[in-house]
Description:
By secondary structure, the chain is of the alpha+beta class. It has helices at residues 4-15, 26-33, 60-64, 76-86, 101-111, 122-128, 132-153, 162-175, 237-256, 263-276, and strands at 20-23, 41-45, 49-53, 69-72, 91-95, 115-119, 180-181, 186-189, 209-215, 217-219, 222-223, 226-232, 288-290, 297-301, 314-317, 320-323, 327-330, 333-337, 342-344, 354-355.
Amino acid sequence: xxxxxxxxxxxxxxxxxxxxxxxxxxxxxxxxxxxxxxxxxxxxxxxxxxxxxxxxxxxxxxxxxxxxxxxxxxxxxxxxxxxxxxxxxxxxxxxxxxxxxxxxxxxxxxxxxxxxxxxxxxxxxxxxxxxxxxxxxxxxxxxxxxxxxxxxxxxxxxxxxxxxxxxxxxxxxxxxxxxxxxxxxxxxxxxxxxxxxxxxxxxxxxxxxxxxxxxxxxxxxxxxxxxxxxxxxxxxxxxxxxxxxxxxxxxxxxxxxxxxxxxxxxxxxxxxxxxxxxxxxxxxxxxxxxxxxxxxxxxxxxxxxxxxxxxxxxxxxxxxxxxxxxxxxxxxxxxxxxxxxxxxxxxxxxxxxxxxx
Length: 357
Ligand code: ZN
Ligand code: ZN
């Protein structure tokens, strides 16, 4: 773990005229320090990088965060106040999206007269651009999702419940190195496949229907997120029609997404195709989202996103069509924006898989 991330943060701080920042978010703390403990804070100034944690982690934290001074705290505001006085800091930036009102009130009272400066998305913006270490982990997380998909195909049979399928997928992922799944595994069969977010239920898989699987591995601190939709039994023309439109739109988007494009432009690539076939209203969500330490992070690929796609960003591409009462299809891959285009890091086949009952 290099401290290149701290250097990037300092550059941002300089541009915004911030002399010190207090990092209270667990994920942002892990991003900066590499420390995986359940509790801790980071104080970054122009020349100090300090990790504060409690006595439980005084062995682990220095091992995981060799670039940081590790300081043990009891009452954290006391330790912080002493540090700020020592460093002659009078204005302290904090992450307004990660500090509750109660915590803020407490800081304000205990740290007075230090001025608290709210900031938003400072570290999240840095996290959008992944470095090589992060990309290596994300490729592994994606590959684990691919292997899980191949594995679960053997279990898709009439009479099995969606929950049993989800359980087997989660077991497989953990058995192969995942800490957990990235989010509640979606197994949505038959009519339920029309639910964009149909978390596995007690429904028994019948056959002659779609089964939509949306899942990912949370692996070494990073998430993968893939969706594949298969047919168990015999597909009707309607199954094939919907599947082929979603596939066409997804492939077209993957072929044309490139750096310099906005999230909105990327979204339109797939949306225009689905709309042309008359299914625009059945594609109610955005094309994709940033992926990394969190399963949904910046940038979005959506109608509302002005963010310019930049090399090192990792996003999902996941168009879908959902027909209430019938079923739905989503096809989702994870990609990295590169200098010239994209790298697709999920590899599972996207041919319509028709599984024997
Ligand atoms: Zn997904
Ligand atoms: Zn997703």
